[in-house]
């Protein structure tokens, strides 16, 4: 899941309702979505008079919260004794350097070398945020309940998905939701989805063959996301979206939504700083106002609500009692006698949205980076193709986990391009953070543990962790799949994540629930594509990683795209 999904920022472009007219079979959604331009617009005094009492109240609440937070942060806070980068401004702190730089990591990786694995950075309006990439500290935070999703994140998740999302639930409620969902995401369950993944990979091959763009430079990122979403939507909803057959994919709709809501720019950063101080009751009121950018969000909610509830109705009308689908699994957990341990029917779309969005963004972006590196490394590409074709021609069921080159390559992709480079958390209690190696304070003292106060903002700096030379070697900033084929894999013995020392899917009680589904989907798509096609980078390649909630490929002109030259493989 994303690190941030901030307050809506108005941007020109398509709306979800414009895209949805062709996205679904006409008999699936009976009521076509009305373009918002033609919809009846409600009248709100606040919309036309920004200095009305509502906005004055909002300003007072935010100012009071900022002052209180600033006062608490100055009281005996050990974090302030640590060395960290100077902030270019009080208003934006280090946030534009951290999240808004042209190439993600150009500042962060330098700070890692200069200040170590634990250091403070300045957020907007004087906030202090603690960057943590120390492995012992990360292990503690991921396996304990001392931290929770930060307030900005929680409100953003509520805005995107709803109020019962797995991503922001804690404690007993989180355990109940995982208990309900875990069987559907188990290894045996995911293996039954393999035919759907292979069908999607074959449709992608046919789509590219029909385009006739061989030998030309093509942006393949949209179709990679569409193929990924076709798999996710069909496995979750048992309903093919047919995005690769010319119909608008939910992935396209979600990309429009993310473009409207992402906040790495100036306004977005400020709104992220302000959101934590808006009370829930006021936040709900604001979401009902005609704020630019919210129209897309409301369309998305309406469509996913209709998709989910009509699927449930169709199953009931057909007399189906099976809980084989994700939606069916959730519906079977609707225990009226014990509602606190089950899932209310009205909240089922919340969980569907959560999985659709998280699965598409992370899987689609990881696929994009995989194809970029395949195009960049022609010799390795040839070896990978040889392995994939040998597996296809063996006549046996392919066990993708036993393809050594493919898996070494994908582990390196997950290390080098973690979909979630920063995970935003907040301390929910006072605790002492253990460190794997000493940290030098401003006074020159060496400390091996750090007292953390309740309310401290924390970044799990996952991208920095994956570039630590002490774990990954002196060439940690190089992309080298062979490191995973050595006698002792990197980070062996750390016991951090699901694949060696990788934290691309997090770990502990907050580990990505769908990591098996994501990994198998990526394995199938990459091996299918590299067996059929050859990839090369254009001469004017300018792709770089950029922070847009996840780590996405962008070209030199700032456009989210992955231009590569595609041809038929020999």
Description:
The chain has helices at residues 16-20, 45-48, 53-73, 95-99, 108-115, 135-143, 151-160, 171-181, 187-191, 194-211, 221-237, 250-261, 266-274, 280-287, 294-317, 326-332, 348-376, 378-393, 404-416, 462-465, 469-472, 515-532, and strands spanning 118-122, 128-132, 147-149, 217-219, 422-427, 431-440, 446-452, 457-461, 533-536, 544-548, 550-554, 563-568. The strands form four sheets. It has a five-stranded mixed β-sheet with strand order 1-2-8-5-3. α18 crosses α22. The longest helix is centred in the middle third of the chain and has 29 residues, at 348-376. Helix content is 45%, strand content 11%. The chain has 570 residues and is of the alpha+beta class. It is globular and about 65 Å long. It has one domain (16-568): Cytochrome P450 (Cytochrome p450, Orthogonal Bundle), CATH 1.10.630.10. This is Cytochrome P450.
Put the structure in a nutshell.
The protein is built from 22 helices and 12 strands. The chain is α+β, with helices and mostly antiparallel strands.
């Amino acid at each position: 899941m994303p690190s941030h999904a901030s307050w809506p920022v108005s941007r020109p472009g398509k709306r979800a309702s414009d895209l949805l007219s062709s996205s679904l079979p006409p008999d699936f959604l009976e009521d076509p979505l009305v373009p918002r331009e033609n919809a009846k617009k409600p009248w709100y005094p606040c919309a036309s008079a920004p200095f009305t009492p509502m906005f004055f109240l909002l300003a007072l609440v935010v100012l009071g919260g900022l002052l209180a937070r600033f006062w608490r942060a100055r009281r005996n806070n050990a974090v302030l004794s640590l060395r960290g980068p100077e902030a270019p401004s009080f208003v934006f702190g280090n946030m534009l350097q951290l999240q808004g730089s042209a190439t993600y990591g150009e500042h962060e990786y330098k700070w890692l070398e200069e200040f170590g694995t634990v250091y403070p950075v300045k957020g907007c309006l004087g906030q202090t945020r603690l960057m943590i990439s120390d492995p012992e500290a990360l292990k503690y935070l991921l396996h304990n309940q001392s931290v929770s999703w930060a307030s900005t994140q929680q409100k953003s998740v509520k805005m995107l998905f709803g109020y019962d999302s797995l991503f922001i639930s804690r404690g007993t409620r989180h355990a109940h939701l995982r208990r309900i969902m875990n069987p559907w995401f188990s290894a045996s369950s995911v293996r039954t989805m393999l035919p759907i993944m292979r069908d999607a990979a074959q449709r992608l091959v046919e789509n590219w063959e029909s385009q006739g763009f061989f030998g030309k430079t093509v942006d393949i990122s949209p179709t990679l996301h569409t193929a990924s979403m076709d798999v996710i939507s069909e496995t979750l909803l048992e309903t093919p979206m047919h995005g690769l057959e010319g119909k608008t994919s939910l992935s396209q709709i979600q990309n429009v939504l993310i473009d409207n809501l992402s906040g790495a720019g100036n306004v977005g950063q400020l709104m992220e700083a302000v959101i934590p101080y808006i009370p829930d009751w006021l936040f709900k009121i604001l979401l009902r106002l005609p704020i630019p950018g919210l129209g897309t969000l409301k369309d998305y909610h309406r469509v996913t609500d209709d998709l989910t509830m009509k699927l449930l109705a169709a199953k009931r009308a057909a007399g189906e009692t099976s809980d084989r689908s994700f939606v069916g699994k959730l519906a079977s957990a609707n225990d009226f006698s014990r509602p606190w341990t089950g899932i209310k029917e009205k909240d089922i779309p919340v969980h569907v949205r959560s999985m659709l969005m998280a699965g598409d963004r992370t899987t689609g972006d990881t696929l994009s980076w995989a194809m970029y590196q395949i195009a960049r490394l022609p010799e390795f590409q040839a070896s990978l193709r040889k392995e994939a074709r040998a597996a296809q021609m063996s006549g046996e069921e392919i066990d993708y986990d036993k393809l050594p080159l493919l898996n070494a390559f994908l582990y390196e992709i997950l290390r080098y391009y973690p979909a979630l480079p920063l995970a935003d958390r907040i301390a929910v209690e006072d605790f002492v953070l253990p460190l794997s190696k000493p940290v030098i304070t401003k006074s020159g003292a060496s400390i091996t543990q750090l007292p953390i106060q309740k309310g401290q903002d924390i970044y799990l700096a996952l991208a920095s962790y994956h570039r630590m030379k002490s774990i990954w070697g002196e060439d940690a900033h190089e992309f080298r799949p062979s490191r995973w084929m050595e006698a002792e894999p990197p980070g062996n013995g750390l016991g951090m994540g699901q694949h060696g020392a990788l934290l691309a899917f997090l770990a502990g009680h907050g580990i990505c629930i769908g990591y098996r589904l994501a990994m198998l989907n990526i394995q199938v798509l990459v091996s299918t594509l590299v067996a059929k096609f050859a990839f090369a980078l254009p001469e004017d390649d300018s792709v770089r990683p950029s922070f847009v909630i996840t780590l996405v490929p962008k070209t030199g002109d700032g456009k989210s795209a992955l231009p590569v030259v595609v041809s038929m493989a020999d």
